[in-house]
């Protein structure tokens, strides 16, 4: 295992003025280069703190990618800190200076003395050319750890990583392929239950990592296999086969709550099913207030199957647009299975689609009654071979989460009908 | 100086699957509580690594806020790691268990053995109640460092911080009361420009902290005053007056891009204006696909003014539901100012509302042409005294962000009309 460390420097990170997206980017890149990131840190622009951190990393990691502190101002300390940590001097790197001059000449600027400071590198370090900004990067080995220092500006950093750092990492790791990953999406069970059901996984598949990620109200289960394991093992079972068996085992344990074995969300899976059959969809919403349509239309290409949705908050709109009968509304109220059914049938006709789904309920915080408390939602589905509706009680304590849960449940009811029909 | 440390645990952070926004939030909060964050770290869900990190922090920092690892699954290790680092056992905390039971009962779920594990805390630790999820937090002192452990789910973490952690930090740092805060919401200018325009703030108002938070596509500007300063200063200008002057100065610099001086989002501000006048709204969406209605209905009480929305992806729905003329659609196409105007007028009639807003555009990634590239959006507003529409080019490079930007722009056009009329 090759251990990686990601280090950010900069007061702006520790003041919370910026979100450190660089580290997430670098974690992903290291992983796909075959390196296991064991830790990320961010420290202030403080010489002692940076030196201490570099020394600690140099004794624990094999590779460190570092961002920030390469600029021309006095709080840019990376080169000096590397030198101090390694016990060497800094000196002018003529190649780095040449590269900066070229960059400035091209833009008609003059180098300032402050810029020249940026070409002062620790003795023994190599400069990494920056084609998209002024600050040269630095590559240097301290103890057994190879450091790659890049600018903190994301755009410059990402391009320097791609052009200058990644090829060197590939050389070092002998890396030729990606890690195998399988993603399953679940809906309809709390994370704790899922964890309990899958608690035997580690014993069965010791070489595969099992991870959970809540994407409320769905849960993503991720199986991942490190590159090394992919070669044939003694029993002749290779990584791909292990992964396939692990996936089947997980799906067997979880049963019908697995909505996709491709990591698709409910809206993506519904879209995939509709596209496959060349059929279309309309939506009638009350309590979800446009969220079902929003989720559906977040999927690129949704215009292939999504025709129309009506958010009918007012009862008058339920009557005029969706043709819900006044009698139903007066007798049963807006939040009711029959109303949901008529909404689905009505919007299917209004939209001229093959399928329709409807929601009507009480998202809260107010509006609940004893008979229909906050969290009550009625969902209707209408399709080519009939229609049905159902009532649920799904309160998650606040309006936004209730809307999310109601919307997901309506997509799930629709998904089940779509699966049944094909 | 009180030294703070922010620690995240979770493989998903080190695999780069998620961007660690929790740390940025916590850095900001610690700072505004009078604590200097000296370092942030993220480590894997690995017992030895977490224990080592906790011990290192316990000998260097005064306060550590930690996120993740409180769930019910086997890779949730925080309680066990704290216990090991402190050299104590874990034991059942009956208060934590009671609190979880209450949370589950309210939702009609049963506690599983896996959940009971969540109530096992290190001896000597105190539990922090979680009112917005199942995982109890943990507060514990190791060496001289006080640890506050919160869930990794941002929503739960932020609320637990506000309710349970911040008051304790105030006690420890001597922040005896609330900090004065003013929030301004901006729309229509990039963060870098806003920062540049307000760069003189620090000189003018040295005692007030100026912070930015991107809530795409809006920017929240926060002015905050530390408690100590609020007492009368020598010149007799108290904190409240300073804050008022600072607010006026900022609003003067920024002009019309300030959409609310109460920190309200566009949807909240539009709702406030409609409610104030007792008027109603309908929405016609194409490219925003339900998002405008979703944003409007996320505001509690939206049913007071929001009547109806139609998401008309198909042209046939634009004709039949919104009464857009076939001639307009054939001559000008769906993405067009006249179409947007007819959509707004049509949905105002269909919904029977005082106001209406419409969107039609190309969110991408495909569907653009030379004349109408991805990012083109036409927005219409219809009201009691007339209607108008406008075309914009607002490409942010991906479908989801384009939808967000289009929706915000439509609410902004509506907001301006509402303001004009009163």
TrEMBL record, chains A, B:
Lineage: superkingdom: Bacteria
Record's signal peptide: none
TM annotation in the entry: none
Coiled coil: none
Every MoaB/Mog domain range: 5-171
Pfam family, any one: MoCF_biosynth
UniProt family annotation: Belongs to the CinA family.
Protein name as catalogued: CinA-like protein
